[in-house]
Amino acid sequence: MTLPLSLDSVTAHYGKVKVLEDLSIHVGAGELVSLLGASGCGKTTTLRLVAGFLQPTSGTIRLGDKDLTRLPAHGRDIGLVFQNYALFPHLSVQQNVGFGLKQRNLPSAEQDRRALQMLERVGLAHLAQRLPAELSGGQKQRVALARALVIEPPLLMFDEPLSNLDAKLRVDMRVEIRELQRANGTTALYVTHDQEEAFSISDRVAIMNEGRIMQLDTPETLYQRPANSFVARFVGFENLIPLTVRDRSGDVVRAEAKGGAMLTLSQQRLGAIPDGFVLATRPDGLIVSDDPTAEGLPATLGLRTYLGRAYQYRCETGTGHLVANGSLATPFKPATQVTLTPNPDQCAILAVE
Amino acid sequence: MKRFAGWMLSSPATLAVSLFLIIPVAATISATFTSSDGVFAPYTDFFSSGFQRTVLWRTFEVAAYTTIISLVVGLLTAYVVSRCPHWVKSILIILAVFPLLTGVVVRSFAWLIILGRNGILNNSLEWLGLIERPLALLYTQTSVVVAMIYIFVPLMILVLVGVLENIPEDLLDAASSLGASPTRTFVQVVLPLAVPGLIVGAVLVFTASFTSYATPHLLGGTRQMMMGTFLHQRAMVTFDWVSASTVAAIMVAVIVTTVLVMTRIARRLNPMAT
Amino acid sequence: MTTRLHPLLIVLTALVYVFLLGPLIIIFGASVSDTTFLAFPPQGLTLHWFENIWEISAFRRTIVTSFQVALLGTAFALLIGIPAAYALNRHRIQLPAWLSTLFVLPILVPEIVIGFSLLRSVNVGLDVPVFTTLLIGHTLLVTPYAIRVISASLASFDFSIEEAAISLGSHPVKTFFTIVLPNVRSGVVAAFILAFITSINDVSVSLFLTGPGISTLPIQILAHVEQFFDPTIASVSVLLMVLTIIVMIIVERTLGLTVIAK
Questions:
Q1: Does the beta-carbon distance from A103 to B273 stay under 8 Å?
Q2: Helix C130-155 / helix C98-108 crossing angle, nearest 10 deg
Q3: Residue A238, Cβ neighbours under 10 Å: how many?
Q4: Which of A167, C48, C187, C256 is the most exposed place for a label (fewest CB within 10 A)?
Q5: Helices (H), A104-240
């Protein structure tokens, strides 16, 4: 069973503090959407609202055609995987997995059968009689996953499920979670602060800040076409250069930066460019060259650090500090005068905010 | 020098406890085994007297009732306190600490005013026309148990609030996300996880009520003699110190046994232990 | 935020708190009643019974004794308890596990047995004066509280600070007084207060350690109740409750009342 989830203009408060403002999200049936952001951005609050542990001040939460907004948490039928696993320490692995089935008053033979079957799927049938304290972190997380899946919920939610695991296990587990979610076709809401995790696992990602969604899109779009400076910075566009268009000829635009430097940009590569705009580039998106004829931003190099695949330079330009990566083949000394030329593949156009 | 620093620093306290507790109490207990009528004579005397057996049994009964009722009342109250918003919780904790820090004499005395012949309870019942003549409420086993519960409920609440707050909120959230109603969450998750704490609270209350003096003295008098009041009577009224020592030795035996057995059970039942 | 408390449970809790506080409020009422017997609700209004406390010499005397014993006993308990707590935290490896069990014995062994045994062995056996024996009993009674509370605050003390001071040339003894002790000051205050209030309220140890002209306030209350059932006791009780409230305010100001709950 799978159902779409929608939140409509949900606002929530902790006491008097507004933690979510007019938030709307639609998660299609069988889709996996991640909520991504720093701690305090409202992602966990959103999840707790859907789970029923918090009540919104206004707005509605629907699962399929069922209005969940005023339903108590235990009546919502949502599978939830916690950051700290939240396994019942006094119950065996099998009893943990069977807990939800017991609440649904299934016959105990049926409970056992389905719990064991689910443990089989996550590869832990041999540990069914152990207590949670005897399991490793990865095994605990699998039990937590099995416990949430066995009740066959129309919606699965994950609250930072991998953040207590080590790096290698984290990658394995997220593949496993994705496979199980795909196989069951369950709608899923996934909360994380790890960008790589969110991008690798999700159909779409909502980047959140201060209780609002800054952008909700596919990972590819977010990564290449951030909608605003917050998202741009979040996905690694470290340099934000304000520019003003001075001249247009066909698709080619000539724009002036603060300090007078001129850049030539192609709308074919970058999309429509308004008269006043911000050019966002990643450090890799600024080509460092000491060729005096190159067009671009004149810069004085500052501190050089070694990244392994490139050298990174702190640069002084007429438009402020910028960060650029230069090739390992031609290292420059500090204080060298260079030109920084944007590489359109690593750039995005943003509106002035 | 450095190797003995720990010993040196702890020696004054060690010495004080050994000199003024272990030796005197050991002396009291050994005094019961030096009777000229035989090693166990004081004990055979104690247990052959119907009155003294009654005192011991009554003490058990009162302590057991007090423990069980305090446990139930304390658990339910502590559960509510632990789930309250922070500021309400602080107030409720302070309101439980206040009686706890007010002495046992003062708190037992309050029940004299309530249960006395001209006490509030009798006056109210008469005024309501439910009784014609004051009931003899004082110096009954019930009056002792009620006052004892009154004395120990605050302690139980505070112990259990500590225990319940240690149960991660996530576990309760997990239970309700899996479809458990609040009552089922309480019975299937909270209760089993609180067992070690319940045992600690039960041991504290049982041992304290078994050995109490002021409450049975004020509310039970000589009619509801308990081990504490009996010990005092033997020591200070009849000056029969061998008999008093026997009562003391039996009390120590009961307390030590209770503590040892219950800590063992608690250890076995502790779900958090690996 | 989450509402999962059954209304019946909330009603029950309210009733429990009425049960806990009602009797204490009744004492307040009875203490100002203008009757020669204990009455609630109070009939008339008088502070006569508070004056009466000072007119009865036994109360005057026992109040003084109670404070003397509580202050001295607590001071001695801290004197032996602070080094013991420090040793238990700093030198745990060289000390056997039973040592901390030894220090809870005064709580574990029934107070009434301790009192009786001190009477037998120390007061009568060694012919130690009553007041001294009483002081020994109270010191013993409150030492576990001193050790436990100070241990708890030493447990969260970072001993590398002490090592830093010593490495900078401070003598270990001086370091203890200038670095360690100031950092566990709140623990010492809490221990002092908890010990003091325990001592002031004690019945079972003091019960046996009274002599001509020497007794503590709780014992005097018990004696007075047997002879007179007048509101004097209620007003003494009110004084003791006021003392409790003052203590609670001090604790709340210094470290928060949750310390006592632990």
A1: no
A2: 130
A3: 18
A4: A167
A5: 108-121, 137-149, 167-184, 195-201, 219-224, 229-234
Which of these three, A176, A198, A231, is where a domain ends? A231
Look up the pTM and report it: 0.85
Q: Which of B7, B24, B73 sits opposite C122 (nearest CB)?
A: B24
φ/ψ bin of B64: left (φ > 0), alpha (ψ from -120 to 50), beta (otherwise): alpha
Q: Is A93 on the interface with C (CB under 8 A)?
A: no
Contact check, Cβ <8 Å, C4/A72: yes
Contacts of B272 (CB under 8 A, 6+ apart): A89, A133, B193, B196
- Looking at the fold, whether A267 and A221 belong to one and the same domain comes out as no
Are A179 and A305 within one domain?
A: no
Asked whether C26 and B116 are in contact (CB, 8 A), the reply is: no
Q: How many CA atoms lie within 13 A of A153 on its CB side?
A: 30
Tell me how many residue pairs between chain A and chain B have CB atoms under 8 A apart.
Answer: 72
Q: What is the DSSP letter of B259?
A: H
Q: Tell if the CB–CB gap between B273 and A75 is shorter than 8 Å.
A: no
SS3 percent helix, strand, coil of chain C, rounded to 5, is: 75, 0, 25
At the second CATH level, the architecture of B37-269 is: Orthogonal Bundle (1.10)
Instruction: Please check whether residues A91 and A159 belong to one and the same domain.
Output: yes
Which domain, by its residues, includes A201? 5-231
Q: Which tokens sit at C145?
A: 């509280």
Q: How far is A337 from B262, CA to CA, in rounded Å?
A: 80
Of A51, A77, A133, the CB nearest to B179: A77
Asked whether the beta carbons of B65 and B140 are under 8 A apart, the reply is no
pLDDT for C88-101, tens place per residue? 998 888 888 889 88
For chain A (353 residues), the mean pLDDT of every run of 10, in chain order, is: 90 89 94 93 93 93 93 92 93 94 94 94 93 92 93 93 88 90 92 94 95 94 93 93 91 89 88 91 91 87 92 91 91 90 90 87
Residues of chain C with pLDDT under 70: 1-4, 39, 255-262
> In this complex, is the C-beta atom of C135 within 8 Å of any C-beta atom belonging to chain B?
no
User: ipTM more than 0.95?
Assistant: no
The residue among C230, C226, C221, C224 whose CA lies nearest residue C203 is C221
Q: With CB atoms and an 8 Å threshold, state whether A147 touches B178.
A: yes
C-proximal residues of B, 139-158, CB under 8 Å: 150, 153-154, 157-158
Q: Can you give the pLDDT at residue B109? A: 92
| Closest alpha carbon to A133 in A101, A174, A90 | A90
Which residue out of A91, A103, A157, A158 would a mutagenesis test of the B interface target, given it has the greatest number of B Cβ atoms within 10 Å?
Answer: A103
Residues A212 and A248 in one domain: no
User: Cβ of B228 and C118 within 8 Å?
Assistant: no
Write the pLDDT tens digit of every residue in B156-192.
Answer: 999 999 999 999 999 999 999 999 998 899 999 999 9
Contact: A14, C2; criterion CB under 8 Å: no
> Chains touching chain A at 3 or more Cβ pairs under 8 angstroms?
B, C
Separation of alpha carbons B156 and B198, rounded Å? 9
Q: What is the C-alpha to C-alpha distance for residues C262 and C260, in angstroms, rounded to an integer?
A: 5
Neighbours of chain B (3+ CB pairs under 8 A): A, C
- Residue indicated by tokens 């996880």: B193
Indicate the fold that domain C57-261 takes in CATH: MetI-like fold (1.10.3720)
Q: Could C80 and B27 be called an inter-chain contact, meaning their C-beta atoms sit closer than 8 Å?
A: no
CATH classification at residue A164? 3.40.50.300
Q: Smallest Cα–Cα separation from C234: which of C68, C35, C67, C44?
A: C35
Q: How far apart are CA A21 and CA A11, in angstroms?
A: 5
Q: At what angle do helices B50-83 and B191-210 cross, to 10 degrees?
A: 140
Query: How many domains does chain A fold into?
Result: 2
A95 shares its domain with A163: yes
